[in-house]
Q: What sequence folds into this?
């Protein structure tokens, strides 16, 4: 291991052990790099071009002139070399009789570009500076940085929210190479707060993760309604998957601990993506805490990450739609066509204009069933290529494309018709027994008032579109009298203002 003695590190606590583990997992040498800050010139650093799939460094350019590369990834004097590579140092030195040419950057440039040796890159998500290149402004910035660390000032909490979503069209075809349109809503959200601490602590939610009860009857009532699976498992699974992802992607994390807590007002088990909202908000906090950028974890991959937390770690039945719309936020058109998913691992995701939207409403059962059960045996029937199911998923995609057009044209009457068709198609495939009497009752009630209605997800809720304001008021009262919770949807746009420190 070679580390320059004149190098300042923004965080002196990064995990050397993680660097060594990554080095040992690769069949070659290791070069550490970081992303240049805005204003830093690539001509002052050794610049690397890295394959995002293999993490192999494909080209090394020592202080290149502007325009030679688009890469903003800069190597620092932080390397790991294998014993059988050391003879190359002697060979390089023999080729460079002049002392000024015997620089590590030129060695790596020769080794990678000419000798074509396997050299891999690992990113440190912190800044670097060389003492000899620090100007007055840089010196002041770094002095302030280290002074703040020494004073042990209370860490500023990081708070992030993710919002509930409603599927407006095409669902549940997202899990079957279909197309969907979904929207985040500000009525309901999950919020996660992370603050630096001495040890890593996951705080249980007092209502969702109870450990103390007033009586055995109290435990019975809470367990019957809320089940046994709170949000704490979501925090833990996200943290585990995050560390695993960073290790695999060659991102060395700092050895900082933190305390995580969460809060949510998304009703449970009604199919509004409450679980994925907690995972999504947790991931946002972790990315900010460890300085993981959008280029490290792009939005399409982030949606896959969230889905994998739920399906691989927690065995939750889920599709990509919810995770995509919670990452992109707003009104999103999603195409999960087979060729896209197989070629690149994610679909085509397009944010839509939501400056003018019709008055959508939402109603849900006060005592719903587990949303994961509603998928029934449709997936197996689809895998078996049952014509009814395959044709239905194709039809869901067609309805979605039509809905995208009418949303752009603001043809709300036609949109209402498409929403009703979406529900009837779903009923034909999943059957009434699978949809459940509660959902069917809410659909029937909405139609009595001339409202379009469909399921926003897979649970005990319905989303609708009622263009008659007077009937909307009457319908709200009817739903409430039937024991349901009813609200007018407030769409959430990513351009809307959040509380301080949120994304």
A:
């Amino acid at each position: 291991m070679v580390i320059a003695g004149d190098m300042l590190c923004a965080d002196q606590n990064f995990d050397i052990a993680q660097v060594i583990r990554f080095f040992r997992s690769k069949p070659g040498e290791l070069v550490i790099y970081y992303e240049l800050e805005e204003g830093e010139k690539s001509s002052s650093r050794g610049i690397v071009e890295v394959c995002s799939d293999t993490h192999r460094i494909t080209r090394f350019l020592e202080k290149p002139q502007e325009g030679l590369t688009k890469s903003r990834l800069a190597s620092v004097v932080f390397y790991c070399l294998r014993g059988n590579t050391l003879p190359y140092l002697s060979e390089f030195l023999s080729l460079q009789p002049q002392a000024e040419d015997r620089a590590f950057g030129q060695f790596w440039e020769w080794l990678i570009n000419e000798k074509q040796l396997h050299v891999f890159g690992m990113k440190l998500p912190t800044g670097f500076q060389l003492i000899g290149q620090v100007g007055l402004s840089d010196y002041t910035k770094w002095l302030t940085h280290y002074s703040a660390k020494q004073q042990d000032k209370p860490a500023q909490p990081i708070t992030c929210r993710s919002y509930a979503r409603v599927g407006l069209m095409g669902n549940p075809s997202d899990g079957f190479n279909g197309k969907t349109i979904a929207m985040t809503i500000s009525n309901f959200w999950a919020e996660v707060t992370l603050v630096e601490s001495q040890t890593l602590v996951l705080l249980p939610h007092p209502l969702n993760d109870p450990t103390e009860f007033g009586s055995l009857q109290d435990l019975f009532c809470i367990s019957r309604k809320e089940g046994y699976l709170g949000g704490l498992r979501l925090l833990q699974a996200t943290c585990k998957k995050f560390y695993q992802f960073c290790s695999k992607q060659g991102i060395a994390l700092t050895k900082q601990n933190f305390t995580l807590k969460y809060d949510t007002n998304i009703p449970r088990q009604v199919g509004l993506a409450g679980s994925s909202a907690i995972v999504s908000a947790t991931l946002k906090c972790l990315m900010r805490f460890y300085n993981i950028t959008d280029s490290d974890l792009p939005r399409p991959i982030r949606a896959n990450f969230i889905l994998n937390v739920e399906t691989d770690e927690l065995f939750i039945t889920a599709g990509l739609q919810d995770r995509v719309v919670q990452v992109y936020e707003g009104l999103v058109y999603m195409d999960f066509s087979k060729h896209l998913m197989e070629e690149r691992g994610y679909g085509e995701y397009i944010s839509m204009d939501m400056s003018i939207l019709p008055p959508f409403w939402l109603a849900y059962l006060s005592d719903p069933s587990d949303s994961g059960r509603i998928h029934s045996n449709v997936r197996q029937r689809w895998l078996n290529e049952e014509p009814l199911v395959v044709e239905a998923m194709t039809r869901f995609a067609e309805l979605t494309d039509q809905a995208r057009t009418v949303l752009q044209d603001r043809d709300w009457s036609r949109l209402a018709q498409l929403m009703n068709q979406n529900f009837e198609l779903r009923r034909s495939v999943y059957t009434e027994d699978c949809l459940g009497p509660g959902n069917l009752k809410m659909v029937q009630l909405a139609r009595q008032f001339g409202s379009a209605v469909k399921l926003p997800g897979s649970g005990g809720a319905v989303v609708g579109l009622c263009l008659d304001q007077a009937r909307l008021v009457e319908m709200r009262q009817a739903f409430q009298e039937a024991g349901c919770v009813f609200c007018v949807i407030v769409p959430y746009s990513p351009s809307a203002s959040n509380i301080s420190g949120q994304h």
